[in-house]
Design a protein that fits this description.
The chain is mainly alpha-helical. It has helices at residues 25-28, 43-55, 60-92.
Length: 93
């Protein structure tokens, strides 16, 4: 058995109000707009993602979606950087 807790009538000391910093439930439920596609993947790829998803307790389709999103983010940054470099070359030339 656990020992009983004894409560005392002591002063609380310094009390301060903490502002609400947690996101609202609607912000937590936010999802990006999705587009359904039909895509044929190799059996090897699907087995890999299913295995990894199982190890990390997530869904394999979510992992594939995040991988593609990361690729797009990286390529978008690279293309923007490359376009700026080409524009500078044209301005100089």
């Amino acid at each position: 058995m656990r020992a009983k807790i004894k409560y005392t009538d002591e002063p609380l000391g310094e009390i301060r109000v903490v502002s609400d910093f947690l996101p609202s439930p609607s912000e937590l439920a936010f999802r990006e707009e999705g587009v359904k596609v039909t895509l044929a993947l190799s059996k090897k790829s699907v087995e890999f993602f299913k295995s990894e998803a199982s190890r990390h307790h997530t869904q394999y389709q979510r992992m594939i979606r995040r991988l593609l999103d990361a690729y797009v983010d990286r390529q978008s940054h690279t293309l923007t950087h490359r376009a700026a470099r080409i524009a500078r070359k044209r301005a100089v030339g």
